Amino acid sequence: MHNPSEEFKIPIGPQHPALKEPESFSVALRGEKILGVDIRLGYNHRGIEKACEERTYIQDMYLIERVCGICSHSHSTCFIQAVEEIAGLAVPRRALYIRTLVAELERIHSHLLWLGVAGHEIGFDTLLMYTWRDREIVMDILAELTGNRVNYGINTIGGVRRDISSIQIQETLKAMDLLEERTKYYIELGLEETTIIKRLSGVGVLSYEDSLHFDAVGPTARASGVKRDVRKDDPYASYGEISFDVITDTGADVYARTIVRLKELMESYKIVRQCLKNLPDGPITVRAPRKIPAGEALSRYEAPRGEDVHYVKSNGTDKPERVKVRAPTLANVQAVKHMLKDRFLADMPIVIAAIDPCFSCTDRLVSLKDDDKKADVMTWQALHDYSIKWHSQRGVDFGKLNKKLQERLSK
Amino acid sequence: MFNAMFSMIIFPGFLFLAALSFLGEFIDRKIYARLQNRVGPPWFQPVADFIKLLGKQEIIPTEANQTMFKMAPLFATASVVTAFFYIPLWTPEAMYSFNGDILVVLYLLTIPTLSFFIGGWYSTSLYARIGTVRSLTQLFAYEVPLFMGILSSALLANTWSLTKITEFYVAHPWLWLMNLGGFIISLIALLGKLEKTPFDIPEAETEIVAGAFTEYSGKLLAFLRLTLNIEMIVGAALLSAVFLPFALTYNPYLDFVIFLIKLLSITFLISLARTVVARLRIDQMVNFCWKYLVPLAMMQLLLNLAVKGVMIK
Predict the structure, then answer these.
(1) Do B36 and A199 touch (CB under 8 A)?
(2) Under DSSP, is residue A250 helix (H, G, I), strand (E, B) or coil?
(3) Of chain A residues 155-194, which have a CB less than 8 A from chain B?
(4) B132 near A CB under 8 A
(5) Is B129 in Cβ contact with A345 (below 8 Å)?
(6) Contact check, Cβ <8 Å, A345/B130
(7) Full-model pTM
(8) Of the residues A196, A236, B107, B124, which has the fewest C-beta atoms closer than 10 A?
(9) pLDDT digit string (tens) for B14-57?
(10) Domains of chain A listed by start with CATH number
(11) Which ipTM did the prediction report?
């Protein structure tokens, strides 16, 4: 029987109510105190990068969109920017504005979703219900504009697939007013509600230096005072023509991350309004070649969770040679270990949630781990022999079958 | 003999209490849902949940201590039902009463927490163990203000019997207002006992799955849930008997309705509390109880002592 004052390990994940996606956090505890965390990625590996090499660029676009269920537009835009750069396509301005518009709407829905999840992690389900109710407004707008609630499929190589009508503009503007009003209420709530402040402030601290050291991105870095935003640093789409502020905070804890996200929502409403107001006339797409000339490109994009990086290498055919995706969670997950040190078990869910993790976007490989060191390493030949033996014990003799096959072939 | 059996098992005993607890759970869930902008469950949902759980397969971990694991829910249910017999409901008299029954009721209401501890501990799950340790830590924090709050009312009535307390306040109609502070303190402490937000730390879903209940399933889980529901009703009945013993008209039907209203108002307050706040951490919870609740309960005790001194003079 174990003694709670001793050190012991509990598994948070791969299956756990706190995690929305499977990922393993093995937590070493003494009482309620966390001594160390062992993070293992790789439970969601889907081989998307390899699959991209087997498909054409147009097919890849839809595949890449499915890297993430929440920031799907981020990934597809990031990929397409790289392809367009290699092909040397000049995307029409109207298309860029529509991309920016969808990107910001996606940020709004992602941040509202995060706020709800954060509320749930600290046992404040009312916040979850409220924010997810309000999130429906932006989801409906996205469905209205693009045809889908997630995986919008609005991008195409050389532009966008759907135009925006003036009725849609009016509806979107109306929804923005409503959402702005609700967000102001959440900001007020976040600034005043005692239990929220008690649970969030001083938790998961990542100082300015640590944030640079661990290369944190997105709201996680901005909440530590690092003014890092691809939209400002390396403007893509139409961000260069739009005025907005990069929100930073010096709190460096989970509370600061919450405030940063809430204030970013207000900035997003601003950007959406500007996009709709300054929407230029003109075509929404240019004709793109099926075969992309040989070359390579790196594309950066500020996803709701932080900087998303895609690398595409083409070889002159209609299929890419190599596609590499670096999702923002991979940059931030390193910092989680540091944030959790010497904290309480109760802080664990919210600290993990505070980087807004998206594990299935992150997973690029599967690593098999053998803690007991019992398993043998088998060579290919040994595995082949073993399988023949295993089957022959069960009455399937591949040796005979092989001979038969060879006889037939020789005839 | 038959009458005693009837009143224990059917009315106002176990079956009535179970029905009342289902009603309580429904009201709690419905209010919680409506406050969160949801539709909420239909009225029969708690009963349906109970029946469905009864029909589910029961899985007992091989490592667990079978006897303790199975006995814990029964102990818990039995103790809360027993506590109910000593609480005056819509009449000023409880089913059974003797001098000192207030202590017995408080003791019986502690047993569920201890049963959950034993059941959780012997289930050998790590989540359950952390949950049980948390529930015991929490027990020492909320029990003291709860006892002090309830005993301050007893002190004013100068008796240790719940029936006598009700009689005293019926005889002195406006004196219950003196205990309003004690009522609020006890209500907050009751939240800890019932493991409701902000004090649902022992079963914090996102941290330790379901705490002590992690390994429970089927009939045993059904009875654990029933126990928690009954505990809420018994706790609310205790608070209404000790702190709100007013408006007794001696018309049994009217009194019954008033009793239900009191009970449901307390349920409403509990639902409201868990709607508007986030879950605290265990250290914050213990701090809150000892730093704020206990001194306030102490002041309530002093106030009642002073009032008593004036009244005697």
Answers:
(1) no
(2) coil
(3) 193-194
(4) no
(5) no
(6) yes
(7) 0.84
(8) B107
(9) 888 888 889 989 999 999 999 988 898 999 999 999 999 999 88
(10) 7-40 (no CATH), 48-362 (1.10.645.10)
(11) 0.83
